[in-house]
């Protein structure tokens, strides 16, 4: 990783330690925090980074195919949403709306894991979906949807929409990654990057215990300002930012403060429905104040 900030290029930084907590392995990694734009990045990428994505890593869990009935229901729900008859649907309806997605659009999901989001879009009626992830076990091919074991630099062709749902922060160099992402966009194409951000109140108050610091898997975590500067450098217009943090910023951070790990943690046994509801309420308040711990950045080329 570069010694100056990958986002604003400032060389003014402070150093901090992040600990591997998801698996509870306890190894420590140095991170830098930019004094200017407040973005975070790992000082040195571990040579054996693949070891931190074992086969039980959550994103690789196989997608369970929905029943015919459920698929029919999801298709219907999307048709009603499109007509404006229902306002609130599942989370991905928000991206569909903000990206103004059309069912024929060529859509790529980079770092898609097993492809949960793409399957949901396929059930809704989207017809041109491609997912890529270098770490998946098996590829998927079906009409309208393919998932290939490929990394960003191996991709060819262009898309109307490129999305990264919590994968950008895992890529080794944000500037190289953005250059490659821009190459994949059609003129006027849209890029959605959803990732943790350092604007979150939880990061500012709990620091190293923050659930989404996730050392050493998260290599770069920008601030809102850092992400906008980064996008502009690569010719992208930031059209919209939507904070979409969830209850996990609270229960996950609390878990790490108690020295627990995520892998053996049973949320339903340790967190009452009432606690979860109040965490979700708190997350919504923070999101409205741009103080949640993650956001979606909607860029246009
Ligand atoms: Zn910076």
Give a written overview of the molecule:
The chain has one domain: Rossmann fold, CATH 3.40.50.150. 30% of the residues lie in helices and 22% in strands. It is built from 9 helices and 12 strands. It has an 8-stranded mixed β-sheet with strand order 6-7-5-4-8-9-12-11, sandwiched between helices. It has a 4-stranded antiparallel β-sheet with strand order 1-2-3-10, with no helix packed on it. The two termini are 26 Å apart. The structure holds zinc ion. The site of zinc ion has 9 residues, from loops.
Q: What is the count of β-strands? A: 12
Q: Strand sequence of the main sheet, in spatial order?
A: 6-7-5-4-8-9-12-11
Distance between the first and last residues' Cα: 26 Å
Main beta sheet strand tally, sense and closure:
8 strands, mixed
Bound heterogens, unique: zinc ion
CATH superfamily: Vaccinia Virus protein VP39
β-strand percent reads 15-25%
Key attributes of the depicted protein:
single chain; 301 residues; alpha/beta; Rossmann fold; 4-stranded antiparallel sheet; binds zinc ion
Summarize this structure briefly.
The chain has 301 residues and is α/β, with parallel strands linked by helices.
């Amino acid at each position: 990783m570069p010694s100056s900030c990958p986002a604003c290029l400032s060389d003014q930084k402070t150093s901090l330690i992040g600990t591997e907590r998801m698996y509870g392995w306890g190894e420590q990694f140095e991170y830098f925090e930019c004094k200017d734009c407040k973005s975070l990045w790992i000082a040195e990428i571990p040579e054996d980074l693949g070891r931190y994505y074992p086969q039980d890593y959550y994103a690789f869990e196989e997608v369970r195919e929905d029943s015919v009935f459920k698929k029919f229901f999801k298709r219907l729900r999307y048709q009603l949403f499109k007509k404006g008859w229902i306002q609130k649907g599942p989370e991905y309806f928000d991206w569909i709306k903000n990206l103004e997605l059309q069912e024929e659009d060529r859509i790529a999901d980079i770092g898609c894991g097993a492809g949960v989001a793409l399957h949901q879009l396929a059930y809704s009626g989207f017809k041109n979906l491609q997912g890529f992830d270098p770490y998946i076990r098996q590829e998927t091919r079906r009409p309208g949807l393919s998932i290939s074991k490929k990394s960003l630099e191996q991709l060819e062709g262009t898309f109307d929409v490129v999305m990264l749902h919590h994968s950008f922060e895992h890529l080794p160099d944000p500037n190289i990654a953005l250059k490659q992402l821009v190459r994949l966009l059609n003129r006027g194409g849209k890029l959605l990057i959803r990732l943790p951000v350092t604007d979150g109140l939880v990061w500012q108050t709990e620091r190293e215990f923050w659930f989404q610091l996730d050392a050493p898997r998260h290599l770069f975590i920008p601030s809102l300002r850092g992400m906008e500067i980064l996008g502009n450098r690569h010719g992208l217009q930031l059209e919209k930012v939507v904070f979409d943090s969830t209850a996990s910023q609270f229960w996950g951070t609390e878990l790490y403060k108690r020295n627990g790990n995520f892998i053996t943690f049973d949320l339903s046994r340790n967190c009452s429905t009432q606690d979860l509801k109040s965490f979700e309420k708190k997350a919504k308040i923070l999101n409205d104040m741009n103080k949640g711990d993650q956001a979606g950045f909607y860029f246009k080329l």
